[in-house]
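Suppose you are handed a protein chain with no further information: no name, no annotation, nothing but its sequence. What can you learn? This example shows the usual starting point.
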Amino acid sequence: MSADGAEGRLRAALMRLERPLAQAGFLIGDVRVLDQGAWGRLDAALEGTALSGKLQVHLNKKGDISIVPQGNAAYSIRKALESEPITLAPTASPPLTASNARSLVAREISSARSQSAQPTRSTARGMPGELVVDCSKYGKSLIGPTEWRGVVHSASHGWREVFHSPLYERGHNNLGEFLAIIDACTRIERREIECASLWSDSKTALSWFRTGIIKTTLDVEAVCDPLFVEAVRQAQQWLEQSDRRAWMKLFSRWDVTVRGENPADFGRK
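A reasonable first move is to predict its three-dimensional structure. Written in structure tokens, the prediction is:
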């Protein structure tokens, strides 16, 4: 598949749809691309708090892009995407009125916090107000020293670190990715940081947040250090009391195949 051919155009189209879908409570899951050179099709699974569905992105031989929502959530998907400058394939559904509710005003973090935050070396492109989180676990073993952080993009400073967790002696990567999301949410809730959108590249962590369930077979209390165990316990407690559907409107998944390396990445690969 050529990155600058059909696949590149299909993934770029999907990237443009990611924010309005997230605003409607849908996260993009598994993606499959059928590339025939000059034309192709992309199939993306959509995971919502109430409904799940599927999205097909078509590129015809004339170079036109069209969108086909599918599944039980097709109506909700169409409603979320109706104002996008991409053709929605006609269905029996009645026409929908465009809504301005999904318009996003990017907000800068305060100048004081920007000045105190540490710059990152990421060259990934970003929009002002994007907050991205990532986790790092040292070593190849399942359990090891774990930490996470969040970086935010501003027009004047680029990507800058706005929070950084302690280094836990015995942690786990997937749980760390999940804790990074919760950490960001709690800081936003306390008005310690501001953002227009929140991004993670972890499908697993985003799925745990969406369902409200940490689906791990790991015996956390047995293998992780007590402070990490307590962080997981507090995160689960916060999640159970939160309005997940409202928070999901802030979320998007950072697709490294489209946008490049996660700007919050620690560079230890």
